[in-house]
C-alpha cells in the first residue's frame, strides 16, 4: 500500500469526499492566511516580557521577539498536529490574536501582573479545559447554545474577518468621529491599490472555479507588490496621515524585509521562556489570579466554540440541530495546545477562523491540518513563509471568505423575532467589539429574554439561563472594575 492510500485510509478521504491534492492545497491556503501570527504574536508579547513586570530574560528586544517566534511556531505545530492526528479536522491552531493582546496589554502592562504569572494562568486555564473536555462538560455547554446563535456565528465571523482583512489592506481607516471610514488616501496608497487589485483578481479566479484561487490570489498580490516596490513606490506613511487628518491606517510595507526576520543563535535558545510559568505561582494573590484565569477561560472557550461552529458550518460538518459531531476531539486539541503553549512561553492557543480559507478550498480532514503543522515546523529551519507574504496580501483571503460566509444566514428564521434578535445581535456585536466571544454572549443573553417575553417558555432550557447569567457575571468582572480593584 502506497503513501497516498495509507493517508486516504487514515484520514478517510473517500468518506469526506476529498483527495490528497485537495487536502494539500487546503493546508497551504490555511497556513498562508494564518502565518501572520508568527510575526504579530512575538511583536505583541515581547513588549510585555521586556517592559512589563517579571523576571529579566537577559535578552535584547529583538532576541526576545525571535524566541517568541520560535515558541509560536512550536506551539502552533504541536496543537495542529493533535488536531490533525487525533481530531481529524481541517482546523489550524496557534496563539490567538486578541488573547495575546489581552495577555500583554491588560494583564501584564495594565494590571501589573508579572508575565510569568500570566503564563501560569494560561497553563491553569489549559488544564481546566482538558478536564472539562474529558468530562464532556465543554461539549454539553456548546450544545446548549441556542440554534439561532449557532447559525449566526458564521455570518458574524464573516463580518469580523472582513474588518480585519480590509484594515490590513488599508482600504479602511479608523477615525475618532465615524470610527471606521474609507481611507482618505486610498488612491495615493500603493498598498491599498495593490490589495484591492489582488482582491478582485482573487474573486475573478474564484468565480471561474479555478482550484487554488485563494492561494494564487495571495501569491499574485505578493508578486505585484514586489514589482510596484521595485518601481520605486512605497506605502503611504501612517504617521503622516495621523498628523494631517487625525486618521489612522495600519502599518504596512510593499516589500517586507526578509533579512530582519532571520533567527540568531540566541533566538533559538528559548530556555528563558520554557517553564517560566512555574515561578509564576510564587507569591500570587489567589483571588486576583483566579479572576485572570476566569477571564482567559471565558474568552478562549467561546472564541473556540464560535470558530468551530462557524467553520464547520462552511464545511458541512454540522448536523440538523447545528451541532458538530465529536466536537470533544477538536476541543481537546485546543485544550492541549493552550497548555503546551503556556508551558513553552506564549499566550492562549486557539482554533483559527482563518481555517475557513482551507475549508473553502475543499479541505475536509485532518490532512489539511497536518499540512499546516508541517509548514509551521518547516518554518523553524528557514525564514517563516509569513515574511515573504505581506500582511495585506495574505488578508485578502479573509475578505473573500467573509463574503462567502454570509451565505449561511439564509438558515436563520428571520421572520421569527425570537430568532432574529439573538441572531442579529450575535452577528453585529462580533465585528463592533472585535470579539467572537462577545458576539456569542450577546446572542446567548438575549435568547431566553425574548423567548420568555414572547411566552415561548418551552423553548428555553435551564442551561440557557445559566449561560446567560454566566456571561453577565463575566462582563461585570471584565468591565466593572472588579478585576483591577482586586489586584
UniProtKB/TrEMBL annotation:
It is a multi-pass membrane protein. InterPro entries: Azg-like, Azg-like_bact_archaea, NCS2. The chain crosses the membrane at residues 24-47, 67-87, 94-113, 119-137, 149-173, 185-207, 214-236, 286-302, 367-386, 392-410, 422-445, 465-483. It holds the Pfam family Xan_ur_permease. One of its GO terms (molecular function) is purine nucleobase transmembrane transporter activity. Keywords: Cell membrane, Membrane, Transmembrane, Transmembrane helix, Transport. It is found in: Cell membrane. GO terms for cellular component: plasma membrane. It comes from the Archaea. Belongs to the nucleobase:cation symporter-2 (NCS2) (TC 2.A.40) family. Azg-like subfamily. This is NCS2 family permease. It comes from Halorarum salinum.
